[in-house]
Write a structure and sequence with these properties.
Helix content: 25-40%
Strand order of the largest sheet: 5-6-7-3-8-9
Shape: globular
Radius of gyration: 25 Å
CATH topology of the largest domain: Rossmann fold
Number of strands: 18
Number of domains: 2
Structural class: alpha/beta
Largest sheet: 6 strands, mixed
CATH architecture of the largest domain: 3-Layer(aba) Sandwich
Strand content: 25-35%
Order of helices and strands: EHEEHEEHHHEHEHEEHEEEEEHEEEE
Distance between the termini: 61 Å
CATH class of the largest domain: Alpha Beta
């Protein structure tokens, strides 16, 4: 294996046997003593291969049960593969499950030393790093409390703090941002940036597409244990979203099919990667067009610093049973940097009138974006962001922001030089 490769997974497969009945009580075990337990074979991973370069931020995405965590545990050496090989070039610091390696009867401080030892640190090394671990975890007041009394957020703080201070070349992170408040998540993301600068290899399992696209150099999409696609974060994340939409549509169609004597087949879903419009009769609504307007409602594509920008999302509604549609809009630079995103669910906007109008307007006042070209991603949802109805990966048109000076950057801040 090349010295530039941190992790190489070569045709790895892993199968589990799932019992078809539970025998938890003594009575159940006695009654079923002579009865043979029937197992179902579940292929968690099926012939998966990948190479991760040193210093790369690599993401693994997929629906629940697709094999993401199993793959991470095989790389960490927790599971052994049924076939194939895994080669790791460097020391690994795994953060795979909340509280793994913690003793709930010990204090937070004792568990720092216990967990650090499991990760290969000596007692002196842990002693030296202890103040920084404690500071990062923000658990000074609770460090002498037994871990069994910690909340899930407190446990993840402690575990993550120990993992990142273990000084290993390769970090394995499984849904590290799923638990914890927004401030701690921000600290974690800042650490990710520091790791990238230090040329550490990070393998992240996540369902958060915004995080995946912002931080990951590449992504792998798993589905039913098989590799679907490995490539740029934008390409793979888009495929994941499109697959989720297709799954949801098929679920809805299946749910509404007559049960007795009738079987309807679900047709193939045709999806335009730029503008998703597939089988309108099976969708609640379809995004037809995204427009850029000035504050008077006139079409406009070039804006100056301080102008008001209106983004209009035109749509057609097909399902009258859904009273209210929700909208999400995100702005990206031409280089695919995520600038800003909003949605009506988080902002608690009553969209009942919007649903009847056939278009949704968002006014961005006094825009202070840097000189550049920008595109928009838009989505229509039900009452939860997980229930995606339609999605536009990239608006066909761009809008441009032009400043009157030669300053550069992603934003244009209002400043002045203070004279002595």
């Amino acid at each position: 294996m090349s010295n530039e490769i941190a992790v190489k997974v070569d045709h790895v497969s892993k199968c589990f046997e799932i019992p078809q009945e539970r025998r938890n009580t003594i009575r159940e075990k006695v009654i079923g003593f002579r009865k043979k337990t029937i197992y179902e074979r579940y292929n968690a991973l099926d012939d998966v291969s990948l190479e991760i370069r040193k210093g790369e931020f690599f993401g693994i995405i997929g629906r629940n049960g697709s094999g993401k965590s199993t793959l991470l545990k095989i790389i960490a050496g927790i599971y052994s593969s049924d076939s194939g090989t895994v080669r790791v070039n460097g020391q690994v610091s795994p953060f795979l499950e909340l509280g793994v390696g913690f003793n709930p009867e010990l204090s937070g401080k004792d568990n720092i030393f216990l967990n650090g030892t499991i990760l290969g640190l000596t007692f002196k090394e842990i002693e030296k790093k202890y103040p920084k671990i404690l500071e990062f975890s923000e658990l000074e007041r609770f460090i002498h409390l037994k871990v069994k009394n910690y909340s899930s957020g407190m446990q993840v703080r402690l575990a993550f703090s120990v993992a990142i201070h273990a000084n290993k070349e390769i970090l394995l992170m499984d849904e590290v941002l799923a638990v914890g408040d927004s401030n701690f998540q921000s600290k974690c993301l800042t650490e990710f940036i520091n790791f990238k600068h230090q040329r550490k290899t990070i393998i992240l399992v996540t369902h958060d597409m915004a995080t995946a696209q912002k931080y990951c150099d590449r992504l792998m999409l798993l589905r039913n244990g098989k590799e679907v696609l490995t490539g740029s974060s934008r390409e793979v994340a888009s495929e994941y979203i499109i697959q989720n939409m297709s799954d949801e549509e098929q679920r809805i169609v299946k749910k509404t099919q007559p049960i007795e004597g009738m079987q309807a087949s679900v047709g193939s879903v045709s999806i335009d990667p730029l503008l998703v419009q597939n089988e309108p009769d099976k969708k609640a609504a379809v995004i037809e067009k995204i427009e850029f307007l000035d504050e008077n409602g006139s079409p406009k594509s070039v804006f100056g610093i301080g102008d008001n920008l209106v983004i209009r999302v035109r749509f057609t509604k097909f399902n009258n049973k859904i009273d209210r549609l929700n909208f999400g809009v995100s702005i990206y630079s031409i280089e695919d940097y995520y600038i800003f995103g909003i949605n009506t669910i988080l902002d608690k906007v009553d969209t009942s009138k919007i649903t009847r109008n056939g278009f949704c307007d968002i006014c961005y006042r006094n825009i202070n974006l840097g000189t550049n070209r920008y595109y928009v991603r838009a989505g229509i949802y039900e009452d939860e962001v997980e229930k995606l109805i339609d999605y536009v990966e990239q608006s066909p048109d761009y809008f441009q922001v032009q400043a009157m000076d030669f300053n550069t950057g992603m934003v244009h801040l209002n400043y002045e030089w203070i004279k002595p």
